[in-house]
Design goal:
The strands form 2 sheets. Strands 3-4-9-6-8-7 form a 6-stranded mixed barrel. It has a two-stranded antiparallel sheet with strand order 2-10. Helix 2 runs antiparallel to helix 8, helix 2 runs antiparallel to helix 11 and helix 10 packs antiparallel against helix 11. The chain has 12 helices and 12 strands. By secondary structure, the protein is an alpha+beta fold.
């Protein structure tokens, strides 16, 4: 019993000594294998991290184009604000990221009639991020002392930041301070932007709105589904996605995901070829070593176990380093493309481990077969 245990310990010691010496004596080629597997693991980690986080990040980025959902009246008239409130209350939590009703009307100013647009100011940053604002945007919905003015209207009325504009309605007057001048490139450049409640009161349209714009999450095509549900529930309302934004979200996401998958596959194939070529060269250099082991009684499974253990050790180190470098690369991609950090989600680690080990396994098949096919008599002849 003692003799058997001593024999096993000696055998294990010899096994690990062979592996350590094999790695140490061919360090340059080992580092090539390590580098190839590390690059593969890094790219897979980065691409997988971005892939699983891209829905959130890309949707946030695409929302910089503005609202992607329209609600209005089918009769081309006004709609009740309470319908919008009901839609917002009943929507799934987190689906709508921003919303604002809009009310348009004509009011008389000191010099001429102007078009006023009543809105919820706190939603404008999300719904209209393309607005170029000079001054300070209004951030509270109940502010009836300050207003924002379109650039063209401001030029026509010769108004600057801090100036006053007075609206007249019979004997009633209301004065606003110009807090911001807005350039939008559309009809808003000719409007005075005020809070919705004031617009409703001034235009005698309490509880009414012209239309509403929403920003709806669309990372999984929710916009079309949400529109269909609302159309069935509110047949008197015109409800539709703003297709130029919402339809593009899913298409762009699919294309980017496909591109990332293609990049990962190409890198993994190149890593497999690099590891395979390097291992074949190593087996050629170690032909006498394997032949001698066979001559001393080593079985085929012993050779397989030795080569497999060596590549697993290299792969393990490469995976650890690759996960770290891949995470850093994902952050660089996130900051560069989405201006946000990428979250390392749970599936990323097992995917990286699985694909890296698959690359190592495929790459080691041919070299192992060559090692097993070494003819002891031919190699050791004359030794």
């Amino acid at each position: 019993m003692v003799a058997n245990n001593a024999h096993l310990i000696h055998k294990r010691t010899m096994f690990w000594r062979l592996i350590i010496n094999a790695l140490r004596l061919r360090l340059q080629r080992v580092m090539i294998i390590f580098a190839a597997l590390t690059v593969g693991a890094s790219i897979v980690t980065a691409m997988a991290a971005v892939y699983f986080d891209i829905n959130t990040k890309m949707s946030q980025e695409l929302r910089t184009f503005g609202a992607n959902f329209y609600i209005g009246s089918n009769s081309s008239g006004l709609m009740n604000e309470k319908d919008l409130d009901q839609i917002l209350r009943q929507a799934p939590q987190g689906l709508i990221t921003a919303a604002s009703p809009y009310l348009y009307g004509v009011a008389r100013a000191d010099l001429e009639k102007v078009v006023i647009m009543g809105v919820w100011f706190d939603a404008m940053h999300t719904l209209s991020p393309y607005w170029q604002i000079t001054g300070s945007a209004i951030g509270v919905n109940f502010d009836d002392r300050n207003a924002m003015i379109g650039k063209s209207l401001a030029q026509r009325l010769n108004l600057n930041l801090g100036d006053k504009i007075t609206l007249n309605k019979g004997a009633e007057k209301h004065q606003f301070t110009i807090k911001a001048i807005v350039e939008t490139g559309d009809a808003t450049d000719n409007m005075l932007i005020v809070n919705l409640e004031f617009a409703q009161q001034w235009l005698d349209k309490t509880g009414l709105i012209t239309n509403a714009l929403l920003n709806v999450k669309n990372d999984q095509g929710q916009v079309s589904q949400f529109a269909h549900q609302l159309q069935q529930r509110y047949p008197d309302l015109a409800i539709r996605p703003i297709l130029k934004v919402s339809a593009s979200e899913g298409q762009i996401l699919d294309k980017i995901k496909g591109l990332m998958g293609l990049i990962s596959v190409v890198i993994l194939i190149l890593a497999t070829l690099c590891v395979n070529t390097t291992l074949i060269a190593i087996v050629g250099e170690r032909a006498k070593e394997f032949a001698l082991q066979k001559a001393l009684g080593a079985r085929q499974q012993d050779i397989i176990k030795q080569i497999g253990t060596e590549i697993l050790l290299i792969a393990f180190c490469a995976i650890v380093v690759g996960l770290i470098l891949g995470y850093l690369l994902a952050q660089i991609l996130g900051i560069t493309v989405f201006k946000a950090y990428i979250d390392l989600r749970l599936p990323v680690i097992p995917i990286t481990i699985l694909l890296s080990l698959t690359v190592a396994f495929i790459a080691v098949i041919v070299p192992t077969r060559r090692a097993l096919e070494i003819q002891t008599a031919n190699v050791l002849k004359g030794e």
